[in-house]
Specification:
mainly alpha; Rna Polymerase Sigma Factor, Chain: A; Arc Repressor Mutant, subunit A; 2 domains; RNA_pol_sigma-70-like; RNA_pol_sigma70_r2; ECF RNA polymerase sigma factor SigH; transcription; RNA_pol_sigma_r3/r4-like
Amino acid sequence: MTSVEFNSAISKTSKSLKPFAMRLTKDHEDANDLLQDTLMKAFLNRDKYSDGTNLKAWLYTIMKNTFITNYQRMVRKNTFIDTTDNLHYINNMESSIDNNAYSEFAMEDINNAVETLDEAYKMPFLMHFKGFKYHEIAQKLSIPIGTVKNRIHIARKELKDKLYMYAYSY
């Protein structure tokens, strides 16, 4: 295969590489960089390509290996190795202390939100939260089981709306 044929074949195939790069990197700019690195390596190593083999598979392999190499390089770059005589443990979870401030604020918000519920919804919700079964709640409150389920559902929905700021936490 001549250089012109090789370049033409690569430019036709390169369009199908972009979605694969996006799946690997999950970022548009990183995908473009990965695609560029892949094509550069393909052009520089065209003597290693065997005529008659699957060019697309060869390019996908180059891309996958480039991504893995870049990822490993990034991990190594972000790894700190302590070479001092004291051998301190940096970011060691055993020695870190959590003061639970965030969870205390969250619990306070949850308790406040539960307290603002209408009494008709709060009581079935709290009983269910404490472990009572639907039929036990219905019996204790002298209401139909369907009403119990409905009130718990409404209480959950109201709490979800009131506590929206915690929807994507943790």
